[in-house]
From TrEMBL:
Cellular component aspect of the GO annotation: plasma membrane
Transmembrane annotation, as ranges: 70-92, 104-127, 206-226, 265-286
Assigned keywords, A-Z: Cell inner membrane, Cell membrane, Membrane, Transmembrane, Transmembrane helix, Transport
Any one biological process term the GO annotation gives: transmembrane transport
Membrane topology according to the record: Multi-pass membrane protein
Role this protein plays: Part of the ABC transporter complex UgpBAEC involved in sn-glycerol-3-phosphate (G3P) import. Probably responsible for the translocation of the substrate across the membrane.
Entries under InterPro entries matching the protein: MetI-like (IPR000515), MetI-like_sf (IPR035906), UgpAE/MalFG_permease (IPR050809)
Family stated for the protein in its record: Belongs to the binding-protein-dependent transport system permease family.
Record-linked NCBIfam families: PRK10561.1 (NF007852)
PANTHER family: BLL4140 PROTEIN, SN-GLYCEROL-3-PHOSPHATE TRANSPORT SYSTEM PERMEASE PROTEIN UGPA
Protein name: sn-glycerol-3-phosphate transport system permease protein UgpA
Chain's gene name: ugpA
Amino acid sequence: MKRTLFRNQLLPWLLLAPQLAITFVFFLWPAAQAVRQSFLREDAFGINTSFVGLANFKALWSSPEYLNSLQVTVVFAVSVTVLSMGLSLLLAVAVDRMIRSTSLYTTLLVWPYAVAPAVAGILWWFIFNPTIGVMPYFLDTIGYDWNHISSKSDAMTLVVIASAWKQISYNFLFFVAGLQSIPASLREAAAIDGAGPVRRFFDITLPLLSPTTFFLLVVNIVYAMFDTFGVIDATTEGGPAQATNILVYKVYFDGFVGQNLGSSAAQSVILMLIVIALTVVQFRYVEKKVAY
């Protein structure tokens, strides 16, 4: 390993300064402001401010709307994670078994990752639009009346599909890399011993993919918690009847639409703590079962 020595001790800090400045301005400072505002009660214009302590947090845990949003977020995050990781693993295994046109197949599957969440939401909104959409037409032929505007289950299905579709490409890249790092000799030896494709996958491939799977599990939960705001806003706006009002969207709606800044700040702090707690639990307990 080659080490680089800086004669001027100030130079490394100057090189790090742009990234440190961005981290402070766009991450640390807003987080500190959210924590501060969570203990305050202020009007929409920020003129009158009073310290209320934990009153904003106590009000949340006694609010049926917030508890409903918490339940919706759990269902949404689990559904998006399972669907996106399951489909991406299936596609990665299909690519790993291909001999020709692998690069073309991979390129086509990666393209959706370049689509912004709001654009992905609008795309699937048009596909499932009850009036002009293609999918409601085909579902009607089998006797299912699709309408995500009035049906809670249809609305949740729509946002889960749109959010998972956006994340499949990201998961796919890591699963393909993980599959290609598994020595072919192990699967060939199992095949010689008489193990079928399904047995080889569950006994050899899947355990050796556990580091990649664990990493993607953490990333997908964080993605479902934070990065799906654009999808929700472009498709259902939290409706119908709060059926898709996940925590990150409720933070925006209460803060920017309802102008309840103290409650919105408290919700953002709780959301941050939930994600931190989930990440710690995954690294503390789930990682023990990962075979590196």
